Backbone:
């Protein structure tokens, strides 16, 4: 662009110069061809030539000045553009460095989160296992009407079990305590009553009573059927409810299925029986059979982490990565220089 402006300025100057030369030659030619011209006419012609030359000189100077101003403005603009390009290069380099550092930090944080999730899952499994072990002597009785237990729940349960299960009179049940489930009493009279929780001193007595109830199949109390079952933790009860829901849907399709401890689904398929550890594992097969499966977000996360090589089968079968110390966890969040 600068060279173009310089070329235009010099071209203009050349044109003015050529014009002056042509005018000068033309004037001299006229003078030489007219020897009879007087001195006054020669003087007037010379004055006009001088005026024309002065005018051309002035135009030439103005054109040169404008060209210099244009070149100065152009150089200033180029200098500004050069500074902006340099600043943009610096900022681009800085942004790239920051993005690279952030990617490294995000990667370390992701590793730390995965490790903490793994530890959380491991500890949750162990806590649930311990809680269910503490409940091994407990028995839950469902569908007993509210208020029928009176003030002495322990005595009521003893009489209920002996009469409903036809236990021998000499059998010592050895109940340590009994009470309703620790939830609010339902205000709706048509709602299901709270379950009765019974703790036995002897685990074998509880197992014998439960087997007797399962053998009898129908346990009645005041013309209503009641149910006896193990006392599981709330988390395990939730998982078992999902499995039982799938079992009901499969049985309506004439497919044999059952829930086995702790919350596993066993289905009779064409190639034989198959056991699924979690409902997330059974979901693809059950959906092909037209069975709707309920899987909570935690179980989905456990299944995803298990596919990445983490095991959550239980505390005794734990085979995940070795635990890290707090210093090791902190190193995940430390920015590397």
Residues:
């Amino acid at each position: 662009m600068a060279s173009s402006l310089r070329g235009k300025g010099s071209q203009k100057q050349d044109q003015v110069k050529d014009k002056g030369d042509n005018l000068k030659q033309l004037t001299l030619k006229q003078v030489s061809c007219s020897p009879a011209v007087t001195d006054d006419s020669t003087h007037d012609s010379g004055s006009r030539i001088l005026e024309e030359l002065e005018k051309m000189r002035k135009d030439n100077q103005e054109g040169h000045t404008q060209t210099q101003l244009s070149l100065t403005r152009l150089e200033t603009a180029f200098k500004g553009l050069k500074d902006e390009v340099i600043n943009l290069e610096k900022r681009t380099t800085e942004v790239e460095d920051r993005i690279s550092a952030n990617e490294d930090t995000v990667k370390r944080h992701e590793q730390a989160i995965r490790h903490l999730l793994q530890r959380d899952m491991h500890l949750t499994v162990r806590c649930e296992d311990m809680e269910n072990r503490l409940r091994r002597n407990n028995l839950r009785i469902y569908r007993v009407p509210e208020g029928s237990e009176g003030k002495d729940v322990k005595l009521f349960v003893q009489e209920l079990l002996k009469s409903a299960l036809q236990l021998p009179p000499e059998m010592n049940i050895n109940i340590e305590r009994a009470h309703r489930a620790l939830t609010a009493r339902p205000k709706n009279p048509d709602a299901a009553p709270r379950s009765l929780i019974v703790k036995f001193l002897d685990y074998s007595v509880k197992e014998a009573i439960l087997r007797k109830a399962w053998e009898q199949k129908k346990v009645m109390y005041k013309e209503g059927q009641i149910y006896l079952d193990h006392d599981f933790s709330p988390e395990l009860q939730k998982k078992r409810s999902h499995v039982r829901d799938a079992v009901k849907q499969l049985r309506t399709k004439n497919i044999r299925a059952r829930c086995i401890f702790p919350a596993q689904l066993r289905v009779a398929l064409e190639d034989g029986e198959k056991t699924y550890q979690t409902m997330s594992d059974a979901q693809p097969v059950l959906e092909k059979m037209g069975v709707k499966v309920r899987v909570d977000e935690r179980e989905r996360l456990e299944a995803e982490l298990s596919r990445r090589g983490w095991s959550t089968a239980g505390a005794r079968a734990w085979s995940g990565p070795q635990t890290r110390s707090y210093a090791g966890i902190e190193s995940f969040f430390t920015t590397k220089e």
